[in-house]
Amino acid sequence: MTPSVRASVQDLGAGGFDLLVIGGGITGAGIAREAALRGLSTALVDAGDFGEGTSSRSSRLIHGGLRYLEQGRIRLVREALRERRILLRLAPHLVRPLPFLFPVFQGDRVPRWKLSLGLALYDILAAGGNVRRHRTLGKRALLEAEPLIRELGLTGGAMYFDAQCDDARLVVATVRAATVAGAHAANYMRVTGLIPTVAGVRGAYIKDRFSGEEGEVRARLVVNATGPWADELRRLEDPLAQPLLRPTKGIHVVVPRSRVGNRHGVIFTSPVDGRVMFILPWGEWTYIGTTDTDTTEAPDALTVQEADVVYLLRSANALFPGARLDPSDVVASWAGLRPLLAADPNAPASAVSREHRIVTGSRGVFTIVGGKLTTWRAMAAEMTDQLVTALGHHRKASKKPSETVPLPGGETGVFDGFRAGGLELGLSEATVDHLLSHFGAESPAIYKLCRERPSLMERLHPEHPAIGAEVIFAAAREFAMTVDDVLARRLHLTTETRDHGAAAVARVSSLLGAPRRDASRSPDAPSSPTPSSA
Ligand SMILES: Cc1cc2nc3c(=O)[nH]c(=O)nc-3n(C[C@H](O)[C@H](O)[C@H](O)COP(=O)(O)OP(=O)(O)OC[C@H]3O[C@@H](n4cnc5c(N)ncnc54)[C@H](O)[C@@H]3O)c2cc1C
Asked: Which of 63, 98, 175, 226 to mutate to test the pocket of ligand 1 (most atoms within 8 A of CB)?
């Protein structure tokens, strides 16, 4: 099969695979890539669009996690910082360094001396893989860096560096990388049951959500990487399986950056409840997050509650008093469910473990839960070590190929030549910047489409730099099947325009091709990050 072409029910039914991965969020996509790179014949399926679950609803940070340091989770922080370094190299267009400010106010839970100590340790744990070393700042220096931050009670703070990432595109790039390495992948392909044999589970029954076609994928090993759905899937293997998860819900809101005026990422403790929060720049937008609350809502039916929006806005207003944000400023919001490990039922939600766990079910299905967007590659490597052993290959590589093989578009981080190429073609600077941050070293493929059909150079939406050629690329190379796939997860028009991309729907639809199926019409369609005026 050609890489990046969606596998059909027949493709998946044709060959017995070494491995079937269920769930195409970052965890499943990472495992499919790792396994394929190590020579396992691999199939990957997702019930919805790739990344449509938790993996496109994160805070978009590739970070060590300062607050995990405060909780003493040194191993997690060290591993995450190592992965940050690797991802900055594998996908420099999608994972970018971001300077953060940590302001400290009188009476804060974390005083300045403790912050400096923590950041020094953070630098040490990055072990030479640091973006840049932190700097402590006095009150005046902090206000120079971030002039609109609250002055009252401010004692100073620090600047440190982490990384920001396009989470939805990271998933798609990882799935594409898996197919380049030989995996078969299909989105909108739901697993409806597992194939039992006397020797254990040997594959799964699948249903194509567009054609309604049903079939089966035979595989020697099956991995359940369905994130917040993991317990549901485990019950297909064993109806009495004990739950592994204690999911918590997190929401983010998007407001125009001009309303807040932040120049950096800002990490702070909410004056409402003392929780750690972020105010993050994203082009001309600022997103604020996140909440972390226990919930009984199903992963398919998450809602953004008004109380959560008010909490985020109140916290941001306390830090940027001039912003005076109210719910009418909110352009979009999204809610996600963290697939966290159940541990101590009495622990507060924010203290539940971010570390991952791999368990083998009674019929041999491997389930992987927990973890972070940041640590997906390390999780995939660990999972694949176990799979290789289970297959009896005994080919554990000490140096994993996944550490060095770039994701599509990440072949180089030097974009000057690509920038010049786009400008020569007559594209605006805004569009060229947008293309480089979405496609990196693959930008010339978009330019080629533009040269072949100059009408594809037109913007899709008056408020957004995305152009028509990206829709053609998304459909041909990035598994985009529906208008929503394009607007929400390939181009982000749903969260980066005031009408949530409505002005682009007709054109995107016609570029995708008239009879292009719209799975969002199907009754069991999963929800997307919610554009909302909350
Ligand atoms: C609010 C929030 C903020 C976060 N911020 C960060 C951050 O900034 N940095 C960070 O490192 N981590 C962050 N995380 C954590 C990170 O996003 C998650 O750990 C990660 O995305 C989980 O990915 P996953 O692949 O395990 O799950 P998902 O992305 O949920 O993928 C599971 C997939 O399984 C599929 N599936 C379910 N059932 C079936 C079935 N029957 N058949 C086929 N497929 C099925 C679903 O459609 C889904 O796509 C955040 C999480 C949340 C909720």
From this structure: 226
Question: 13-31, pLDDT tens digit by residue?
Answer: 997 999 999 999 999 999 9
CA of 370 to the centre of ligand 1 (A): 9
Per residue, the 3-state secondary structure of 216-236, as one string, reads: EEEEEEEEECCHHHHHHHHHH
Q: How many Cβ atoms are within 10 Å of 344's Cβ, its own excluded?
A: 10
**What HEC string does 374-436 produce?**
CCHHHHHHHHHHHHHHHCCCCCCCCCCHHHCCCCCCCCCCCCHHHHHHHHHHCCCHHHHHHHH
Amino acid found at 363: R
Neighbours of 40 (CB within 10 A): 25
User: Cβ of 325: how many Cβ atoms within 10 Å?
Assistant: 22
**Cα angle for residues 246, 60, 191 (degrees, 5° grid):** 55
Check pocket membership of 356 for ligand 1, CB cut-off 6 A.
no
Instruction: Judge if the beta carbon of residue 25 lies within 6 A of ligand 1.
Output: yes
Q: Which residues contact residue 517 at a Cβ distance below 8 angstroms, ignoring those fewer than 6 apart?
A: 210, 481, 482
Whole-number Å distance, alpha carbon 75 to ligand 1 midpoint, is 22
Full-model pTM: 0.95
Measure the CA–CA gap between 7 and 374, rounded to whole angstroms: 28
- Partners of 19 in the beta sheet? 42, 221
Backbone angles phi, psi at 119, to 5 degrees: -70, -30
**pLDDT exceeds cutoff 50 at 61:** yes
Distance of CA 226 to the CA centre of its chain: 14
**CA 451: distance to chain centroid?**
32
Separation of first and last alpha carbons in the chain: 44
The lowest-confidence range among 179-183, 389-393, 505-509 is 389-393
Q: Are strands 248-256 and 332-338 parallel, antiparallel or unpaired?
A: antiparallel
Q: How far apart are CA 220 and CA 29, in angstroms?
A: 18
Query: From the CA of 225, how far away is ligand 1's center (Å)?
Result: 9
263 vs 76: CA distance, rounded Å: 29
Mean pLDDT computed over 441-448: 98
460-469 average pLDDT score: 98
With residue 92 as reference, give the H or E element that holds it: none
- What is the average pLDDT score of the chain? 92
For the CA atoms of 389, 392, 396, 401, what is the dihedral angle to 10 degrees? -100
